[in-house]
């Protein structure tokens, strides 16, 4: 009979009669920024099952990295759209800083 961990593609390391789950993440090389950290806290507080599923499957960091990248792109797009709608340009910033502020 498979354990829940094995059904989620988890693996074990055996030491004699003892089996210990391998919980080491394979995708730890991603840098997680502001938005990824916020999403991680949100998952921990509100969606623990999803958080632990991603953590035990080794996909948490890559998922957080993807969310962080998408959120940063969306943020940059919104800032650009707001600047365009308000008529803010680099020339305005250079010529009249008080008007820009």
Explain this structure to me?
There is one protein chain. With 101 residues, the chain is mainly α. It has 6 helices and 2 strands, in the order αββααααα. It has helices spanning 4-7, 34-46, 48-57, 60-86, 90-95, 97-100; strands at 12-15, 18-21. A two-stranded antiparallel ribbon has the order 1-2. Helix 2 (34-46) packs across helix 3 and helix 2 crosses helix 4. The radius of gyration is 22 Å and the shape is rod-shaped. The N and C termini lie far apart (66 Å). The model has no long low-confidence stretch (mean pLDDT 82).
Number of strands: 2
Element string (H = helix, E = strand): HEEHHHHH
Percent of sequence in beta strands: 5-15%
Which stretches of 5+ consecutive residues score pLDDT under 50? none
Helix and strand composition category: mainly alpha
Strand order of the largest sheet: 1-2
Number of continuous helical runs: 6
State mean pLDDT (0 to 100 scale). Answer: 82
Sheet of most strands: 2 strands, antiparallel
CA-atom Rg in angstroms = 22 Å
Q: What is the helix fraction of residues, given as a range? A: 55-70%
Kindly, what is the distance between the CA atoms of the first and last residues, rounded to a whole number of angstroms?
A: 66 Å
State the shape: rod-shaped
